[in-house]
Amino acid sequence: MKNSLKFTFDSGQTALAIRVNQQAELPNALKQIGLNDSRPVLVVVGGASNISESDFLGIQRLFVEVLAPIVEALGAYVVDGGTDAGVMRLIGAARTQIAAKFALVGVTPAGKVALPSELETDSDLTPLEPNHTHFLLVPGNNWGDESPWISDVATVLAGGAPSVTVLLNGGEITFKDALYSVNAGRLVVVIAGSGRTADILAGALAGNATDDRAQELAKSGKLQCINFGIESGVDNLGQIIKGLLSTKE
Question: Which domain covers residue 173, as residue numbers?
Answer without folding.
Answer: 5-245
